[in-house]
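Here is a complete protein record:
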Amino acid sequence: MKPKLLVFSMLLACALIVPGATPRTADAQPAVALRIATLAPTGSSWMKVFNAWNRTLQEKSNGTLSLRFYPGGSQGDERDFIRKMRAGQMDGAAVTSTGLGMIVRPVLVLSAPGLFTTYEEVDKVRNALKDDFEQEFLNAGYKLLGWGDVGKLRLFSNEKILKPSDLKHARPWAWRDDLIFTNFLKVVGANGISMGVPEVYPALQTGMVDTVPASAIAAVSLQWYTRLKYVSEQNMGILIGATILRKESFDALTPEQKSVLMSTSERAHAVLAKLIRRDDDTSYDTILKRNITAVDTNPYRAEWQAELDKTRKILVGRVYPAPLLAKVEHILNEK
């Protein structure tokens, strides 16, 4: 054998017997990394759970399946997440009700104004309609991996907002794709400033907006609270969300990968719900110690409820069907 050929053969043999090296069999399952977009900032409660979920998933799947998260709005706003999933550029997303409503609009009944103020109410309805909504998402081409929460909806502002009519004199942010709050502002006669989530902090810096609807944990995670002075003591509702995956991406997984993905997802979202609810309350207490003043809106509770009820009714047929809203109201009234 020629010297050069002999050296090459020896090197190849050595490479094949490196300790720990395992030859890949012809039918070995290649590793899959699911790309998931989210607005949740790095280091937030959401990302702590998502990262732990990913570690568990990799362990349980023997390294054949992982989640590659793109946090902090690095992939744009939720409308961009939906567009990129449809184009196959993202496999999934962790989104709020706003993003969910772009795919299955009737899911916004879970954010129907004036109906929900406690987690218990949301859980009761969401659990009762769980199978129906999961099928709706499947029909639209998405697998719902798990429900999540974003906290209690409050109004943060630079001037006291005591009653609905006070919003007429404010510059409230209206999320470009949020049908619920946008219509509420129209009902009370206020003019919302339409923009995406990534644009809010700069707009607070310049004074373009001076009022934002948000949960305490979101306001802290996104640093919005540092530019605001007041927060409503009473919440207007519960902000929800979910993690979804393109059905095409889910269907491409092996049965074993699907099983471990769903089992780890169920646990992760259960932990997430407890963590977000706890941290939202903690965030609210924290910001009150940092020069944010709580505003008691209870004296005007009837006015708030009247405007919320009016908004809920005008959304019937445009956002959610009347029978679905009636079903939700029936579930809430059940003992």
User: Anything to note?
Assistant: The CA atoms of residues 171 and 207 lie 9 Å apart. The radius of gyration is 24 Å. The longest helix spans residues 255-288.
